[in-house]
Amino acid sequence: MKLSNEFLFLALLLLFTSLVSFYNLGAEPLWLDEAISVRQAQAGFSEGMTLLSGDVHLPLHHVLLWTQVHLFGISEFSVRFLSALFGVLAVGSLYVLGKKLYSKRVGFLAAALLAFSTLGVYYVQEARLYSLFMFLSVASLLAFFTYVEKPTKRNAVYYFVATVLLMYTHIFAFFIIGAQFVYYLLVHVKNRKKTLRWLLLHSLLFVAFLPWLPILYRQIFSVIGHFWIPQPTLVSLLISFHEFSGSLLIVLAIFCIILAYSYFVYRKKIVETRTSFFLFSWLVIPFFVVFIYSQFFTPLYQTRYFLFALPIFYLLLSVGIDRVCSCVKNNWLFPVISLVFVLLFVIALAPQQTTLSKDDWRSISAFLKEQVGEDDYIFIHPFYHQDPFTYYFDQDCFSQTNVYVCNFEKHNIVSLNNQTSCCSDDSLLTSTLEQNTLSDFLTNTIWLVSVRSTEYVVDPGLFNYLSEQKSLEKHYVFTANHDNRTVISDWGTIDVWKFS
Predict the structure, then answer these.
(1) Could you say which of 115, 208, 426, 477 is the most buried, measured as most Cβ atoms within 10 Å of its Cβ?
(2) What does the pLDDT read at residue 227?
(3) What is the H or E stretch that residue 450 is in?
(4) pLDDT tens digit string along 18-57?
(5) DSSP structural state of residue 498
(6) Is residue 496 a contact partner of residue 478, using CB atoms and an 8 Å limit?
């Protein structure tokens, strides 16, 4: 049977997507959030779910990662495999969605941009929930438009399954579900039968989420007023747009498309569809709702939380390019502009794929194993970074319920107790000794491992306290660029200070 050009192009695109997604998948060390996810997944199922319910995340990714870990282990490649796979599925799903709503060429371009997106690939190669979230957002949208077009029982089941999975992935999924719910009601406001079916379908979705609802209630109220995220500014919105785009050059190219699109709309050569208005609202409203909420209540604005919108961002960009090229009526313009955009995305992605950027816990662990004496103390600061450090330093301790106890009893590793204030002689540590204050640990050599150390050097803290009490002997810097140790940014930088 002769294969169609569409199938060959899609297969080629998915092949390149797979190469990009799985390239050097295990090269980067696990960073904090990944290590926490892996340690929770490595626990027994009920224990892991208990740990998760005390966190702020929903359970689907944890269940999938738990299965992956218990079948294939906790190597960097293994724990990131599912994320990479969902990244490939997201690209394929976006092509299908673009083709369904617009055309084959719009679908191809949107899928290609997602495949080579710097932001998308970064999270596709992370053992976290964001790649799954991105895929399920596209799957739910595809199921939604399939149901809108043909509201059969089969399509209702498809939408129900995709949306239930989405609900159990991230709390921002309710932006997606809410938008779809309102859009359908507005379209079929005069059709009572369809409206009742839609309400029934969402009643079933509510019932499906009921088991987690009490836990979600506790999770939400546990972070009100004291979440770790800083309050966003207008610059935060610009940064998100830049991160979605990938580079300043791409931002400029997008603005050129926006200007051309606006011109043709003004000249009434472009009359946009209701679907495009819905997708634009679906894309933009969550950013502004969370931004405004974060000004008055607990800040929740982080670009990665909006990764579900990344495929639609590229879909609308592709639609804009398609509309502009159709107005010019040049058969070669769309392929040329599409190729330029794809090349810009590849150029922006290349440095990211060839430069390591996460905290280098692998190198720090190997270094300290060689340098630390038997009676020396290792201080990990802040305390929660014991998880990624222990993944490389001692995987037996990493598998324990209380990693702090194991680390201290086997390796003299301590941190400031998360309930203590910093820093004075009486500040409590995570050791198991009765004499468990900072002043009790000053007699031996101390190796202070300080993550993003400028935060603790500028402000009075553990570094300042140890500098006053002991003699600073050596300072080592472990940066994001593992090859030449040149500090390229504060992110990915860890300092190791030796006090004697």
Answers:
(1) 115
(2) 64
(3) strand 446-451
(4) 999 999 899 899 999 999 999 999 988 888 888 777 777 8
(5) E
(6) yes
Burial zone of 440 (CB within 10 Å; 0-12 exposed, 13-18 middle, 19+ buried):
middle
CA distances from 490 to 54, 55, 148, 484 (A): 30, 27, 48, 16
Residue keyed to tokens 């997604």: 21
The pairing of strands 494-499 and 472-478 is: antiparallel
Q: Locate tokens 């604005």: which residue?
A: 301
**Position 225: which residue type?**
G
Beta bridge partners of 494: 451, 478
Nearest alpha-carbon partner for 271 in 312, 332, 327, 313: 327
- The amino acid at residue 330 is N
0.85 exceeded by the pTM? Answer: yes
Count Cβ atoms below 10 Å from residue 127 Cβ, excluding itself.
29
Q: What pLDDT score does 3 carry?
A: 58
Rounded Cα distance between 313 and 310, Å, is: 5
Interstrand relation of 494-499 and 446-451 (parallel, antiparallel or unpaired): antiparallel
Helix residue spans in 248-360 (DSSP H): 248-266, 274-296, 310-328, 333-354
Instruction: Please answer whether residues 140 and 162 qualify as being in contact, where contact means their C-beta atoms are separated by less than 8 angstroms.
Output: yes
Q: With a cut of 70, which residues of the chain have pLDDT below it?
A: 1-3, 223-227, 453-460, 480-492
Handedness of CA 235, 239, 245, 250 (dihedral sign): positive
User: Distance between CA 247 and CA 346 in Å, rounded?
Assistant: 11
Q: How far is CA 410 from CA 42, 368, 393, 444, in A?
A: 20, 14, 11, 16
Phi, psi of 127 (to 5 degrees): -80, 60
Phi and psi of 379, rounded to 5°? -100, 120
Beta-carbon contacts of 79 under 8 Å, excluding residues fewer than 6 positions away, are: 30, 34, 37, 38, 41, 65, 68, 69, 127
For 353-445, list the strands marked E by DSSP.
Answer: 377-381, 413-414
Nearest partner of 41 among 129, 104, 119, 120, judged by Cα: 129
- Report the 3 state secondary structure along 454-488: HHHHHCCCHHHHHHHHCCEEEEEEECCCCCCCCCC
